[in-house]
Specification:
Helix content is about 45%, strand content about 20%. By secondary structure, the chain is α+β, with helices and mostly antiparallel strands. The protein folds into 2 domains: about 5-200 and about 380-385, Ribosomal Protein S5, domain 2 (2-Layer Sandwich); about 205-375, GHMP kinase, C-terminal domain (Alpha-Beta Plaits, 2-Layer Sandwich). The strands form 3 sheets. Strands 5-4-6-3-1-13 form a 6-stranded mixed sheet, with helices on both faces. Helix 10 runs antiparallel to helix 11. The two termini are about 20 Å apart. Bound molecules: alpha-D-galactopyranose.
Length: about 375
């Protein structure tokens, strides 16, 4: 029998450092709808999934040693000597250590081995799982008593401050606070969250991975964020109470379209419409109207492609094929954009045909082997015994 990821993480840890103190599972996430809305204080609808990073961890001796099993790389860090690494992934972990020290929590060296099955750069949030899983592990290891929201926020700050990715809170929140068979209807303004049961056997959540990892994703992401901020600055002159795009109606934006750059207008217009689509989709879900839910998903993709301009040709190809395939309720790109996966809501009886249709599209239109994941919604970060 081939060893599981958990076995490999454990055995590698034991061989190098002795027995681990704790073993953590930190899941990836999907997002049904609400893209680029989190940092605009709007709504999102993510969920934690059955793909995760597993970490074996314990306090070390003189310096920290971290091993990435999947990349077959080791990083050694003398205590207190934090600096950016060419390997990139250690920056997510170092960013977490810096955030603990910003909270005046001093930590000893830490030994850690991790590996998992969240494809890197596929938009399923392997980085959020890494930062928050590490923070969660440290919290457990040293009994720091942080609650789950604080851990999610710490992970976000690690990426914002040290990695330089000005991400919102969605991925970290979903990874840490996810629940089995549940969607998280999260209000990113105050982090209040409605846990929406999604225990359906008649539909499946299916990801189609373009396998495109766009180098510009980080910088373009930060540009989108600052374009939204520029829009808010303009609107604030006219509506002093506006704190974020959450407070702006389509009419308010239209009234001041001439005061802003056309690109900034398009970005703001997308976010305002997308937030409305999340609300529409959530209402559709409670009314058990998955057709309306799917229409909102398709609309989300069109907005991301045409107004927010964060899609890419491969995502558009997969989405346009899915959108007209029988049994597909909705299809759209997922996550930050410029590559990664489409997320598709597919009726169970049509699942096999959908996979066949998409496989042909991968071969014929993208000249690639298909990578298709049928997802299960799982619980958030946890310690495994
Ligand atoms: C990335 C970010 C999230 C969110 C999405 C887009 O996944 O980490 O905070 O902004 O992009 O919705």
């Amino acid at each position: 029998m081939t060893p599981t990821i958990i076995d490999r993480v454990r055995t590698t840890f034991e061989a190098r450092f002795g027995r681990e103190s704790i073993l953590i599972r930190a899941p990836g996430r999907v997002n049904l709808i609400g893209e680029h809305t989190d940092y605009n204080e709007c709504y999102v609808l993510p969920a934690a999934i059955d793909r995760a990073i597993y970490m074996a961890i314990k306090p070390g001796n003189n310096e920290s040693h971290w091993i990435s099993l999947d990349l077959n790389q080791t990083f050694d860090m003398p205590t207190g000597l934090i600096s950016h690494s060419k390997l990139r992934w250690p920056d997510y972990l170092q960013g977490v250590l810096l955030e603990f020290s910003a909270m005046d929590i001093s930590l000893p060296p830490i030994d850690m081995v991790f590996g998992g099955d969240i494809p890197i750069g596929s938009g399923m949030s392997s980085s959020a799982a890494l930062t928050t899983g590490f923070a969660f592990a440290i919290d457990r290891l040293f009994n720091l008593g942080l609650d789950r929201v604080a851990i999610a926020e710490l992970g976000q700050r690690a990426e914002n401050n040290f990695v330089g990715m000005k991400c919102g809170i969605m991925d970290q929140f979903a990874s840490v606070l996810g629940r089995e068979k549940t969607l998280l209807q999260l209000d990113c303004r105050d982090l209040s969250c409605v846990f929406v049961p999604f225990n359906r056997t008649d539909v499946r959540i299916v990801l189609c991975d373009t396998q495109v990892k766009h180098n510009l994703a980080g910088s373009e992401y930060n540009t989108r964020r600052s374009q939204c901020e520029t829009g808010i600055e303009t609107l604030k002159h006219h509506y002093p109470k506006v704190a974020s795009l959450r407070d702006v109606s389509p009419d308010m934006l239209e009234a001041h379209r001439h005061n802003m750059d056309e690109v900034v207008y398009r970005r703001c217009s997308y976010v305002i419409a997308e937030n409305q689509r999340v609300i529409t989709a959530c209402n559709a879900l409670s009314a058990d109207d998955l057709t309306a839910f799917g229409i909102a998903m398709n609309g989300s993709h069109h907005g991301l492609r045409d107004e927010y301009e964060v899609s890419c040709p491969e995502l558009d190809v997969l989405q346009s094929v899915a959108e007209i395939t029988t049994g597909v309720l909705g299809s759209r790109m997922m996550g930050g954009g410029f590559g990664g996966c489409t997320i598709n809501l597919v009726e169970e009886p049509a699942l096999a045909d959908f996979q066949k249709t998409m496989s042909e599209a991968f071969h014929q239109k993208l000249d690639k082997e298909p990578i298709i994941h049928v997802c299960q919604l799982k619980g958030g970060t946890e310690e495994l015994r």
